[in-house]
Amino acid sequence: MDILQKNKLLYARAGFGVSFEDFNNPKPIKECVESLFPSKEITKISVMSFDELQKYLAKNEGMDKAEKDKLHYEFMSFRLKLFKKWMDEFVTTKNPLLEKMALFWQGHFATAIKNAFFEQELLHIIRSNALGSFRELLYKVSISDAMKAYLNNMYNNKAHPNENFSRELLELFTLGVGHYSEKDVRESARAFTGWDGKISNNQELINLLHDNDEKIFLGKKGNFDGDDIINIILEQKQTAHFITNKIYTFFVSDEIKDENIISQLAINFYNSNYNISELLKAIFLSDWFYTQNIIGSKVKSPVELLINYQRLIPYEFKDPFTYYSLQNTMGQLVFMPPNVAGWQGGKKWIDSFSLTLRLRLPEALLINKDIKLSVSENIDEMVMNDVNTEHIKPDIPLKFDNINANWSTYLAFFKNTEKKDLPKKIAKFLITSPLTDIQINEIDSFAESQNKESYIINLTILFMELPEYQLT
Amino acid sequence: MSISRRKFLETSALASASLMVPQFLKGFEQKKIINKNNKILIVVQLSGGNDGLNTIIPYRNDLYYKNRQDIGINKDKVISLNDEIGLNPSLKGLKQLYDSGNLSIINGVGYPHPNRSHFRSMDIWHSGSAENEFINTGWIGRYLDIADVDLNVHNTLALETDDTLSLALKGEFKKAIAVKDINQFHNAASTSFFRKLASHSNEHQEKLAGYLYKTLGEIKSAADYIYDQSKIYTTLQTYPNTQLGKQCKTVGSLIMANTETKIYYVSHGGYDTHNAQNARQDKLLQDLDESLSALVSDLKHNNRFEDVLIMTFSEFGRRVSQNASKGTDHGTASNLFFISGSLKKPGIYNSIPNLNDLDEGDLKYEIDFKQAYATILDKWLQTSSTEILNKKFTHLDFI
């Protein structure tokens, strides 16, 4: 594999596609991989203060319906702000791997709670630990308000143990099915009763709510609390294996699974005390990653796809809610994984409507063409939610007027390319797997060209509407 | 030659021949349904948690009125079915179906340890899983997976009248088609470039790219097929001019055109009635009643009502007691309607759960919803419910 192909593969997987600069001057892989990891601390994405949240929670009482609705909308508008701020970060960031990994963890530690403050705090935990220690990440997510609310740990007390969090912790966050018993779930739930982590340790409250008797968990005996359970889970090599396997699928392939490689990566991950960066470096610096059968073996997620377009040809949605519903329609709405198991990925992204949409969307987004498809603005949560039912809107056509895609940088990049070389160069720039000359010629025949600029635009849209563009 | 013998030869001949047919030729093979029966299932999902107790009303039960001082439906308004229970006043058409023996009402349907989250409970109903189990495929999707049908040409065995495909219709290997607007869908898949790409649908051997091209080919054929089918039959029936009414009209016109689709999936949203419930639920149920009545009348007119089974469900019912805002909060067990021209046991299938014996303020379920699925799968669609639901469930005998 030549160095350009390696750069393309790496940036398609660890980021949102190869940049103009890297395409012109591909660098040695070692140098590229080093540059993927942020050198300074991340900036928190913040839209709402704790005081503001309190204000909204307190306000609700004694209001009539109209006032409540108005308040609800104000409160919900913080969610849209948070959504937009994070999505903007995806487009402008110098550390795409960080955001991609954060999206991975958002799906892994899936919560859907519709509270901008809780969402913002959990996002911050995830982003600041996304490339750090899985131990730290797991612990902080477990004590986050978002997680406690979503999986009911806040209602878990010794009088009425609630197993929800405990079960998902074992099944989905760490060990995976088959590596614990139903008894372990129950015992772990007991350990988590009244547990609030060691951060806000209100002893009186804990005495009242916490089950202080002995528990037996994964073969160990003791008066465990939540901290102990998390430590015991992390002592299990299976936890490292489960996480490694999922990260491998996310970055390497939806199709291929090399068990030997995964096992070796998992052992190193365990020995590094769950250092996520070390694990990713081991993948991206390996020889086996840069092989032909890895190319084209992953389906881009909806968010990846939208960010791909947007980083090349910047555009802005006039109303962030249009963007929000578009993500929802495409099957991946950030902050709202479909259920506690997160996004499934791979072929699961593809159905008749989503593929049709993927093969027509670039025209709508990038050249304001009316593709005569509609998207429902009525997100399930809104349809189901009582407060919003009166606001059900008719379907809106997928016509993004005023989106104003800015082609100038993109066009400038191909300024010095001769017209006859454009089809091959654009194909090579946009698509990770090589296309045949026959394919390129056929596509070229659809790219009518009055002048060079519109020729470049037409070719670009056509290549983006290829099935191959959906893959990396 | 006996039918089974002939079928055996046909299938085995096909099986060996297919080994020699180049991949790109497979697309031209005739679609072929083995075990074809002409039964059709229409699933109507009431999203948000329809309040079962104000749908099927225990109008002689003091506990009902005690728990629902503001929202309890007045005895005089209830459409009485027997001495115990009656229908919501909006369900006039359903009353007629009840009288003509075309409606079966199954009460107290739910599952153990009910989940009161819309999303989780909907997932449980869609996947047909146990309450503590996560399955990423749906019960209809898994029917498609094992359906004895060659879907190489167009993938229209199940169709959802919406733009996103619900979990219920996603299998491990096969998925239903989601079409909200047939003309739009056809349009979107009809550009010359789209058609060109679809013409290569069987030429790609690479695994994932091959899968995308194959799906693209299916979309193209399905879009053409459904579009053509939708032009065959023009109904004289008036349907309500609502989203649900339009969906029912689409389903009706496709059935009357003898479309090969066996399962239609329709959704009706807005049932999450936490406050000022009655006005809204009445309106929703009226829409449901009029849309389904129009569809039934269309089917009857064309002598297809015997071949069609309509099922309604919701992810949960609602709390027995009303809340402080004249609404109800998320609850548990609720009722299913089955509508068909060939019901074996029409009428009230079983009594509603005891209002005296509640679980934290909620009704206790008596029939597992998976029993209804198993019944439909085995008796109506003539497939194997144990393979699809991974467990044997006792049948109900409404069909």
By DSSP, the count of extended strands of chain B is 12
Oligomer status? heterodimer
- Tell me, briefly, the overall form of chain A: globular
Through-space gap between termini of chain A: 15 Å
Share in helix of chain B: 25-40%
Radius of gyration of chain A: 24 Å
Strand-residue proportion of chain A: under 5%
The fraction of residues in strands of chain B falls at 5-15%
Give the neighbour order of strands across the main sheet of chain A: 1-2
Number of strands of chain A: 4
Number of helices of chain A: 25
Q: What can you see in these coordinates?
A:
The complex is a heterodimer of chains A (472) and B (399). By secondary structure, chain A is mainly α. Among the domains of chain A are: 96 residues, no CATH class; 107 residues, no CATH class. Chain A is 54% helix and 2% strand. Chain A has 25 helices and 4 strands. Chain A has a two-stranded antiparallel ribbon with strand order 1-2. A two-stranded antiparallel ribbon of chain A has the order 3-4. In chain A, α5 packs parallel to α7 and α6 crosses α7. The longest helix of chain A has 28 residues. Chain A is globular. Chain A starts with a helix and ends in an 8-residue tail after the last helix. About 3% of the residues of chain A have low confidence. In chain B, β3 and β4 form a beta hairpin. In chain B, strands 1, 5, 6, 7, 8, 9, 10, 11 and 12 form a 9-stranded mixed sheet that branches. In chain B, α8 packs across α9. Chain B folds into 2 domains: 285 residues, Alkaline Phosphatase, subunit A, CATH 3.40.720; 49 residues. With 399 residues, chain B is of the alpha/beta class. The N terminus of chain B is likely disordered. At the A-B interface, α10, α19, β3 and α21 of A face α5, β7, α7, α8 and α9 of B.
